[in-house]
Amino acid sequence: MNAMLLRRLKEISLERYQSVSGTEPRKLHIQMRHMAELSTGQTGVPSVYASVHGRFDAFPPHTHDYIEMMYVCGGSIRHVLGSETVVLREGDILLLGRAARHAIEPTEEQDVGVNLIIPTDFFASLLPRLREGLLLPESLLDDLLGEGEDTYTVYHTKGILPIENLMESISYSIVSGHMNEPFVLRESLGLLFCYLSAVPDAQYHRSDAYAQTIQKQLMSYIRTSYRTATLSEAAAQLGFSSPYLCRWIRSHMGTTFKTLLSDHRFTVAGELLRGTSCTVEQVIEQVGYENRSYFHQQFCRRYGMTPHAYRQQGRR
Q1: 170 and 111 in contact (C-beta within 8 Å)?
Q2: Which of 9, 157, 227, 285 has the fewest CB within 10 Å, making it most exposed?
Q3: Whole-number Å distance between alpha carbons of 268 and 304
Q4: Is 289 exposed, middle or buried (0-12, 13-18, 19+ CB in 10 A)?
Q5: pTM for the whole thing?
Q6: Which stretch of DSSP H or E encloses residue 176?
Q7: pLDDT one-digit tens code per residue, 129-168
Q8: Residues 150 and 205: beta-carbon distance below 8 Å
Q9: Among 96, 210, 98, 112, which residue's Cα sits nearest to residue 155?
Q10: Is 54 helix (H, G, I), strand (E, B) or coil?
Q11: What is the C-alpha separation between 240 and 234, in angstroms, rounded?
């Protein structure tokens, strides 16, 4: 990092420490910020907030309700995430999920970091663009918004000039006091994710909690809407595009939307045949099939017998 910029970041960090510590060395101070205080002043437009990491004091285990990113400008900073101690060195980036629980050990004079606080609403608004063009694992983007306390990623970016240039630009916005320019921070963040998607050997540590929530919502939709369910409607309810939902189901569940829907429809068909007096034609209509020959063909393939034989067997 530029020497003048790094020196100024150190000065800002020291000024903030002295302003809250008084005469008590290493006194613990944690400033709680509400996302409303970080708004741009424009209704419905969330902001990205950048600041210098406070040095010298330890930060005990804590969580927050936003996605946080730390970039180490110089020295090293140690985070404790669960049972793991992660040492970030110059050029490293730590990306924390919104519910990640972590602690930060005390730092020294040469240890300088910059924090980016990313509101979940803003990050969610980025997802359609990020999903379309990035090489980042799709599940990582979703997991960042989940409830898992152990979701984080470490990127080693030292020597990657586009990322270094972006982080210098963001750091300059702190030094210059131009923090009233949220557009620059938001656009810089979009570019940053583009470059992070190509960083080799990124260390992903993810929780399955968010994926489990999405799976439950998807299956709930199929169970309640199986007669008329469509991929596009399911995607809209989950806030995904149809192509992305296809990829998500294949990646997380190892199947397809069509298979999930068909499995549930034929399960319901079997229950109706054995538990009601509905005719086969009525059952076909109730589970959402219009092509009766296709239904019979698929039923025989699944159960090894015709719908009529299946009903008779259930009555024995």
Answers
A1: no
A2: 227
A3: 17
A4: buried
A5: 0.60
A6: helix 161-176
A7: 666 655 555 566 667 777 777 788 899 999 999 999 988 8
A8: yes
A9: 96
A10: coil
A11: 8
